[in-house]
Amino acid sequence: MSQAKEPSLSLADQVAIELREDIIGGRLLPGMPLVESELVNAYNASRNTVREALHHLGREGLTSYVRNKGVIVRRLGVEEVRDIFKVRRTLELQAIAASKPLREYQSDLMLESIEAAQLAQDRENWQAFGTHSLRFHQHIVGLMRSPLLDEFFTHIAAQMRLVFSNAPSEETFQKPWLERDRQIHDLLVDGHKQAAGEALASYLNDSESLLLDILSSIPKP
């Protein structure tokens, strides 16, 4: 799902947002080339604008430059995954710990992500499922009501999507998380903030452990 383009953003920022959303949506996968000429045509932008957008994504840890290949969507390793989860614990657990009673619109946003994930599961669309699960956790960070943290977490969500692609079976990896997202939401709705934080901490520990096991099993080139 693409974000609406904001007039205040430069064209390079807009291109970077579109590409980041394509990563979060699972449409751009690790190792895929980001060819300048194709992006120039797709966005009706200059080469300098496209290069600036790719530079933005590089700073966010989403792309890398490979000699003789150019810019590609980045592959993340064990150390990067550990760092991502360090950031996730800091942001998401703090968001719950500092949260006030859940407002109706905040609950609605979370429920929309949960229901969209349920629909994706029913349709066995595991790519979409992963995207909606990430949206749910973006709404957790949104409890802090900080536009800067919201923007930063979109970078983390995009990196998480790149890590998901390492799972041999996305269905096997994604399926357990829906009910745990629902449990966290329900605990927040009922005002059980400490229990919600504990459920989220357990969720993040299990997710990190599983992803590290998956990465460790991949043969090194």
Automatic annotation (TrEMBL):
Protein name in the entry: GntR family transcriptional regulator
Annotated ranges, domain HTH gntR-type: 9-76
CDD domains for the chain: WHTH_GntR
Keywords: DNA-binding, Transcription, Transcription regulation
PANTHER family, alphabetized: GNTR FAMILY REGULATORY PROTEIN, TRANSCRIPTIONAL REGULATOR, GNTR FAMILY
UniProt entry tagged with the keyword Transcription regulation: yes
Pfam family, one: GntR
Residues in the signal sequence: none
Domain of life of the native organism: Bacteria
Entry-linked InterPro entries: GntR_C, TF_FadR/GntR_C, Tscrpt_reg_HTH_GntR, WH-like_DNA-bd_sf, WH_DNA-bd_sf
Gene Ontology MF term list: DNA binding; DNA-binding transcription factor activity
SMART domains the UniProt entry points to: FCD, HTH_GNTR
